[in-house]
C-alpha cells in the first residue's frame, strides 16, 4: 500500500525538507511513498527578507518562493488549500465504524495514521505528517484584530498587499498636495505596536522606503514647477515594555536606541495598546492601558502590529495535539510532536519542550534535524543529510542580519 508523507504549510522549514526529498525521488518510488504538500499560498514569503522588501532592497518576487515550481520539480502533489482540521490516530491499526455502527478494520482509513481536512473539502490521509504553518500575532485586546484598519505584519502576504496600497496612497497624496490651500506640511503618522527586533526592523525599513518615495515624488513635481505642500512622515513606536529588544544584550539595545533617535522616530514606553477606534476623519485613536500621554499623541493614520506571536488558533482547537500556553505545538528535540508518533512540526508554529527558542530565527541545524527525523520515520535512507548533520556543531549559532533601510547591522 502506498504510504503518504504529508506536509501542511509551505514555510521555509518545509521548503528545505522538500528540496532534500527532490533528490531522493528514486528511494521514495522504491518505498512506494507519496509526498503531498497542503499550502494555502502558492507563492510563500520568507519572513527573514521582509524588512529588506519594505526598505526597497528586494522585489516582491525576490522574497517569495514558488511552491508550484518546487513541487513540479520534486514530483510532489500540491494541494492549494488551507488545512482546517487534523484527525489523528495514535494506533495506526485503529478500527473505524461503518454507517451501520459496526467496526470495520478493512476501511481505507484503518491503516492510516490520520487525516487532514482542508477548507476546499479535500481529505488527505497520511502515514507521516509534518506541520509548518507559522504563527499568529499575539494581541491582548480582540478589538485590535477585528479593526480592519489595524494591519498585522503576519500573515506576510496580506501585509505585502497593504504595503503596496500604502505606497500608492502616499504617492497620490503627495501629488495632490499642490492643490491644498494650507501652507504647513501635511502630516502622515504611522504607528507600529511592538518592541522587539521585528518591530524595529519594520519601522526603520518603512521610514527609509516611504520617505524616499515622497522625496522622489516631490522632486518630480519641482521639475514640472508644480506648487506643493510636502508630506511630513511621522513614525511612532508603541511598546508595553520599559525598554526595547529585551532578548538582546545591552550594546545592541543602545545601538538601536541611538539609531531610532537619529532617525527621529518617537518611542513610547510602557504604552500597551488595548483598543483602536476609527475617528470620523478615518484616522485611528489608540487607547492605552494607564498612560499619561495626551490623546493627540495617540492619533495615527496607520497602525501596524508587530507584537509577540501565538500559535495558530486551529492547532489547539481543531487538532488533538498538545500545545503550550501560547498555542504552539509542543515538540521533542527530534521535532516530533509530543505524544504523537509520526507527526512532526517545524518553524514558528512549534515550541521545543526541553530547549525553548525564540521565534523567527533560522537555524540550519534545526532544519537538518527536522529533515532527518521525517525521513527516518518513513524509512528513507538519506546519507547526505546524516553526513551534513554530523558535521554541524551540536549547539546553535544565530546570526541575525537586520536590514534597516540605509544600512545593515549584523549582531
Automatic annotation (TrEMBL):
GO MF, one annotated term: NAD(P)H dehydrogenase (quinone) activity
Pfam assignment, any one: Pyr_redox_2
Classification of source organism: Eukaryota, Sar, Stramenopiles, Ochrophyta, Bacillariophyta
Keywords from the UniProt entry: FAD, Flavoprotein, Membrane, Oxidoreductase, Transmembrane, Transmembrane helix
Cofactor dependence: FAD
TM region(s), chain numbering: 367-388
UniProt key word Transmembrane: yes
Organism in which the protein naturally occurs: Craspedostauros australis
GO BP: aerobic electron transport chain
Regions annotated as coiled coil: none
InterPro entries, sorted: FAD/NAD-bd_sf, FAD/NAD-binding_dom, NADH-Q_oxidoreductase
Nucleotide-binding in keyword set: no
Domain FAD/NAD(P)-binding: 5-355
Name used for this protein in its record: FAD/NAD(P)-binding domain-containing protein
